[in-house]
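Let us practice reading a record.
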Amino acid sequence: MVSKQEQVKKEWKTLEQSVSLVDGVTAELVGKTITVKGPKGEISKLMKFPNVYVEVEGNQVKVGTKRFTQRQKKIIFTYIAHLKNMIAGVTEGFEYELKVVFSKFPVTVSLKGNVFEVKNLLGEKVPRTVEVPQDVKVDVKGADIKVSGIDKERVGQVAANLEQSCRITHLDRRVIQDGIFITKKPHKVYSWKW
């Protein structure tokens, strides 16, 4: 007679997905940390989850599980998305574009070292500041700001921090529209007319 646990083990399915590395990109796995190197630099990410394995074989990175559940399936496809973003980052990079908008008080933005500064927003005397990580590049040209880098998560977070630094909560945003706004993301372009 077969026990119930042995029946369940026989019914477990396996799932494996793979990502191909493009020319000039290499991947290295040390413990649970995967490092992807390419022409623009390298990115490391910890990929640790119970019953999910990551393997590097030739120019393929395989992510899979021997004990397939819905939770493991979600993690596997999340890891695949991270790997694709890492490969795209070290080959092409990511770029966000932002625009400084003001009507009454002239807003000035500047980058001093790794500190982004917004002065005179709605006539405020104290400047608003945001710290920028070393691996993210911010270019300021007048009212146009470009944020670029190889790590999609960090570049997106810096762009969001710049936008949120000019958040106004005490006035009607339909009337007072001053601030910094994201106009272009790596996967989306907004059609606003400034």
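A brief commentary: The longest strand covers residues 94-101.
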